[in-house]
UniProtKB/TrEMBL annotation, chain A:
It is found in: Cell membrane. Coiled coil: none annotated. CDD domains: TM_PBP1_transp_AraH_like. GO terms for cellular component: plasma membrane. Pfam families: BPD_transp_2 (PF02653). Its main location: membrane. One of its GO terms (molecular function) is transmembrane transporter activity. Keywords: Cell membrane, Membrane, Transmembrane, Transmembrane helix. InterPro entries: ABC_transp_permease. This is ABC transporter permease. It is a multi-pass membrane protein. The chain crosses the membrane at residues 12-32, 39-58, 91-110, 116-136, 157-180, 211-233, 245-278, 290-308.
Amino acid sequence: MKALLKHRELILVAAIAVLIGLISLRFPAFIAPRNMVRVFDDTSILAILALGQMLVILTRCIDLSMAANLALCGMVMAMLNAAFPGIPMPLLLAVGISLGAGLGAINGLLVWKLDIPSIVVTLGTMTIFRGSIFLLSSGQWVNAHQMSDAFKALPRAVMLGLPVSSWIAIAVIGLFVLLMSRTPLGRSFYAVGVNPTASVYTGIDVGRTRFFAFTIAGAVAGLAGYLWVARYAVAYVDIAGGFELQIIAACVIGGISIAGGIGTVGGAVLGALFLGVVNNALPVINVSPFAQMAISGAVIVIAVIFNARNERKKGRIILKKAEKAEVAP
Amino acid sequence: MHKVLETEAAAPSLTLSGISKSFPGVKALDNIALELYPGQVTALIGENGAGKSTLVKIMTGIYQPDGGAITLNGQDITLPTAHAALGLGITAIHQETVLFDELSVAENIFLGHAPRTRFGMIDWRKLRAEAKDILASMGAPIDPNARLKDLSIANKHLVAVARALSIEAQIVIMDEPTAALSHKEIEELFVLIDLLKQDGKAILFISHKFDEIFRVADRYAVFRDGEMVGAGLMKDTEQSQLVRMMVGRSVERAFPKLDVTPGDVVLDVNNLSHPTEFEDISFSLREGEILGFYGLVGAGRTEVMQTLFGITKPSGGSVRLDGKPALAKNPAKAIESGIVYVPEERGRQGAITGLPIFQNISLPSLKKTSKSGFLRLAEEFALARKYSERLDLRASSLSQEVGTLSGGNQQKVVIGKWLATAPRVIILDEPTKGIDIGSKAAVHEFISELAADGLAIIMVSSELPEIMGMSDNVIVMREGRIAGRFAREHLDAETLVRTAAGIEGDPA
């Protein structure tokens, strides 16, 4: 299965390369390093969020509230910044990330302690989070001129050729690689997703593991909330509306199984990049926004079919090997 | 008591002859011949693993036999699918009824053969009326419009019987139908069975309970290790004869049990009770001892073990490990204190089949193999290598997924994972269920070595040879209570079976 997944990641890399190649045939400017950096930076928020969602999906859950969480954290940070421009950025970021983690923890607690299906829990909290933004802001926007320069400038500041938001994404990717491959918690996300019952019998608390997945997903949503609000220099009730589906789409394209237990950091990031390239390339080649939505949708369906086929193949291989193993003395 | 029917000379409705069925490594059925007569109940008796459920699956079209013939009313038939079996009037009522909870009683009765209107739509009025008639003819006080999920298990059985009547079934198979019923409900079921008999149905009745068999059956057939070892009329037999046939004359002790002098008491369980599953469970376990738990399926053995492992909470009683209180709140705590559990359903509860071997083995020991919160793969591999070598695990590499291993090797992974935690007590629940004979012997040998190394072992098993061959002491459970305790030198197959089934009196 590992080999298949590696295979899957190679296919994604190839697909992205072909896509970029095709577009640059007609628009050579697309492949210019500066534009590539821009595309990557454009995708950084989606990539960060897809990683958080990946944890949740691995444990056989789903988080529909990530975009609403992002919007609520972004609004709180924007309002804090507008009201108290003196709050240093690290502190403000810490507040945002903690708030996101707290909101994620609410999802996690409901799933863990009350044993409610995550799709229902997060559908509810999604609406609650959006409603809270309205209550907090009375429906008012926080506009660019109300935000401090430091608040707006940080993600765009360039370090070693890349904007800080890209560096943040790279750091988050690095942390996730460490988390998934080098910590007991990362291992237990996989165990719980592959076989929750056997995980219980191995001493892993399934609910608690899910709680951590939701909390981490919330934390990255909080971080993404800052990046989003600072990048577009505006905060209002509906920012990132519908983005939760893009996040899930990035995961699906990246080969993270909706059935849980299968998925890698590389897959989630590549899935996000693929969507990022598609979203950036289609306007360049003059595809109408409506056709863009249809094309993005088609890509997702193709990815799902691909996933389903992969998992079927896996079944056949297991049977053959199992038979062979049974015959062997 | 049972009726002696005048129809004994009648031709059988269903005849099985020469039926055989093999699975890789196991011969489940060997040359079975069985006849079911109209208006009579035939009891099918046998230990777990004797091949009863395989036979039921063949009769209901779920498995295909490797050889043999089936005739229905003198005509040769084949049962390629479950649908074909149903079409020929063969239906089964299982322990846990296989019906649709969200549908109404009437819909359940007529699902798949509902009366139609002229336009091909379901004729609801007729469907409800007919359902009502059938239930009334059975004397069943069930509203045909009720949701099935709102009914008791006994009433669900009644619906299943009504379904059998509605498809005009000729052959009704009842696979341990009383296992989840109260005494009163069992009596009601027996009245129904009489009704089915009067209707001329041929009934195959599978049960472990001898009092029921003698109450309801006209004939018997005894299975042992996939063979039919006896059949005849109930009036010509008695309990002790059936028990002897089930068990065989002698159970060979060809087991690699090493002689171990048990050491100090490790585990001390006192009056452990659960509100609904078991009560008053007391026993102690010594270093190097293998304590067997025998009983019928549903006697409460697994439930006791799950309580010791912290999966279920008891209502009272105490557990002491090395003299210290050790009633585990959850599995993690049990593992920490040194009690580990190899569950019965290997694929669902034991192995995490999608993960590689080394990750399965290291999973409960990650604290030990990691350093300042980070995993060390080299340590994990070393641990996995140590235990896979010790267990003689056959795999191409330690990165192989556990799901691709044979059952026996999967079980070795599960046992290896626990040994890596250096436990004090290991609980093995049906440790060789469903694994091939070669691996079985290897697992037995290994269990024996573990005991010799001083590990305290509890082995739950429904297989008599395994219990008798491996245990130093045996506890027999029946209906949630301890029904008997036997030391190795006093083990006797018939006594064990009698104690488990609750048969009174001396062996003949």
